[in-house]
Amino acid sequence: MSRVPVPCHIKGAVALQVGDVRTVQGRPGVLVIDVTFPTAGPFELQEITFKNYYTAFLSIRVRQVGSPNQSSTKWITCLRDYCLMPNPHNEEGAQDYVSLYKHQMLCDMDKVLELRLILRQPSPLWLNFTLEELQFFQHGPQSSSSAFTKWLSHPAPYEQPALLLQQALPDPDKVSSEVQQMWMLTEMIRASRTTARIGRFDVDGCYDLNLLSYT
Amino acid sequence: MLQEEEDLSLTIAHIVQKLKGSRLYSQLERQAWVSLQKPEIKLESLKEDIKEFFKISGWEKKLQNAVYSELTVFPLPRHPAAPPEHLKEPLVYMRKAQRPVVEQKELLNKWNEMGTDEPDLSLFRPVYAPKDFLEVLINLRNPNYENGDHLNLKTHLGLIQVPLKVKYISELKEFFIELSLNTGQLGIDDATQVPPELFENEHVRLGQKVLAEQDSAAAQQYIRQGSPTALRAELWALILNVSNQPEDLLYYEQLKSNVIQHDLLVDSLIYKDVKLTASNDDYYFVFEDYLYQVLLCFSRDTSVLGHFAYNSASPPKSYIRGKLGMEDYAVFYPPNGVIPFHGFSMYVAPLCFLYHEPSKLYQIFREMYVRFFFRLHSISSHPSGIVSLCLLFETLLQTHLPQLFYHLREIGAQPLRISFKWMVRAFSGYLATDQLLLLWDRILGYNSLEILAVLAAAVFAFRAVNLMEVTSLAAAEAVLADLSTLKVMPLLQIFLFATIT
Fold it and tell me: In this prediction, does ipTM exceed 0.95?
């Protein structure tokens, strides 16, 4: 299933904290990242990929185009407290690459206008936490079946054999069937390509010390 | 659900592609052709009949074993966006802490010193010893981690300062459930005072049955309770999926001819290492020749490079002179990408008791290396990696012997400084050989090296009374200098299942 990245504008993370940021001790445990899609219109979200950086839990809220009789659009939670780090104090899952799909969301993602990602990291041990390399994908166009070789699908019209055929030439039908068989064999071999090594290791003197340079 | 199916089909596709290149695939194809002659195989139900034939003739078992061994080694399927380095090691700061550049420079410095033709061993110093490696591990820091001056909930009192996930003792009890008090063990229940009818005879019979079935997964489950001495060699070969086919023999002979024809600098390192460690050991000095044969061939074996796909380290690369930076002229030096450190030959020495044929010994060692031993000297966040083992050891000691830990720390004898050398060598050279082989049985059975950390903690617990009375690091080392009289399985059982927590 092909997917096409959607150009997006990711606003910087905003920390949610009670009280004044400068005077209060301790680090914020909640960050909010807003994502808008100024160039693309409302689209159907297929997949979100990102690289985690010490975020423990992720929630996502989405704003979609409402039904025609509704005037204003509402924010709906489509992912609630998705766990990225099983133990927020440990490194497990802290720098993993993650994909989230349409079927994991709590609501339909048909006409997405804006997204809001709410990151939580309850452990006080980490200095920073965020998500990196955020990307959003929608459905791509249906890929057409691989183009059949032109000259096979458009056989040339039958030509009268030239006088050269007076000499002993092999029977064209037999040749064509043999060529077809060979073509099939090469296709089969190409399809079952393996990563196995031949198993031999030739040195040719290239491990001679004088030949290696010092990097 | 969809994601799991996709992961599963990706795993299946990867394993199929890997197996297609193996000898087993062509053998299976040949067998299928041959079976067409048989009267039972009918054209209408060809697929089912051939599958039935494979099941009866034992070929399905071989295929199962091959798939199982691939699954054991194969790392988790990776996310399409993740670069290959992420598969080797997901944490960026650990990737950056790799040593190869330092090692390369040291090796190159020694090249300049080489004046004579014959290897003058006095000019050679081992590339690094476990002590140096420990210093590197101690200095590993996560830049995003709060390492403040004030003590908080998670201050690391030990030497390792990275917060990796390690198992608690309750999780260890579940993981090592076959070692519990009410399950029979070889190493405990085969002592002379215990009548063999209680456990030993039945266990040996079961072992022979497992070998007759030739099932890798069953053998791995069986060996968790220990392996009878007579069956051990074959059981290990079955679990590691190593068979002595003519092609393997030929491969070994080819490596041997490479040793004879070409000289490598690492050969001198290997000679020095064997002379310093194995030749001085009471148990292993008789195997000196075997060790040379195996290690010299090992350093020329390029198939070992395949394990760097899931090893966090990278093989050191050099370029033909004048072609710096051009990938076509890059070579890995040594050919297998592994620079032997001080004590490396001790990984091979215990295996010499089991296998007398050099080519089989070589294959078993190579398989054990690419599955387990490489983790003991590369920096990674894997649960069986040396960093996690050190952290597990320190956590177990702090949690269950807090007084001892505090006392040792106060006198300047951090426990990890003593136990590190045990774990890096997988206790080879420190325990008596039969006990060591029982320990390595469990490593194979559980497919994890965590038992090394548990054993280290158990040894400290056993000698706790003496250790509480020492007043210096040297005295603590003296108390723990001789482990050759220890019995491994009772120590593990007591520490895991009989200690009051």
Answer: no
